[in-house]
Every structure is written in structure tokens, then in C-alpha cells.
């Protein structure tokens, strides 16, 4: 899961509490299928992690990508 890899990189930069929330989200199969359904319908999906006054938003937006992973205009 590409989202899981990117979120893992983000989680590495967060404090323990926030990192646990992000990692749990990437390992939740039901949530994964729901997010994929949103993206397939052209709807952006996001996870918001809060810790006090800090908010981290991880968003996935549908788009077209070529075989090299670069965005197609």
C-alpha cells in the first residue's frame, strides 16, 4: 500500500501518540477499503491527527500518474 509507506515516513516525524494513530490507520483494512472507494469515486480522503494545538492532516487526492509515478498533465 503506497499510502502506508508515505504515512510511515510521516509517522516517523511525529511524537509517539500521533505516530501510533497514523500507523493504526494504515493497518486498518476496513479503513483502507473505505479510502480506496472514496478515491475511486474521485473524492479526496484525509486523516486528521490532533495533539493539543497541533493538527496534522494527511490527504490523498485522486489523480492520474504515468508508469514512472509522475503526475500526468
Biggest sheet layout: 2 strands, antiparallel
Mean pLDDT: 78
How many domains is the backbone divided into?
Answer: 1
The helix/strand series, from N terminus to C terminus, equals HHHEE
Kindly estimate the percentage of residues that lie in beta strands according to DSSP. Answer: 15-25%
Major β-sheet strand ordering: 1-2
What distance separates the N and C termini?
24 Å
**What does the radius of gyration come to?**
13 Å
Q: Which runs of at least 5 residues are low in confidence (pLDDT < 50)?
A: none
Overall SS class:
alpha+beta
Number of helices: 3
| Helical residue percent band | 40-55%
Topology:
Blueprint: H1 2-11, H2 16-26, H3 29-40, E1 45-51, E2 54-60
Antiparallel strand pairs: 1-2
Question: Can you walk through the features of this model?
Answer:
- It is a single chain.
- By secondary structure, the protein is an alpha+beta fold.
- The chain has one domain (2-60).
- Helix content is 45%, strand content 19%.
- It contains three helices and two strands, in the order H-H-H-E-E.
- The protein has helices at residues 2-11, 16-26, 29-40; strands at residues 45-51, 54-60.
- Strands 1-2 form a two-stranded antiparallel sheet.
- A hairpin with a 2-residue loop joins strand 1 and strand 2 (54-60).
- Helix 1 packs antiparallel against helix 2 (16-26).
- It is globular and about 40 Å long.
- The model has no long low-confidence stretch (mean pLDDT 78).
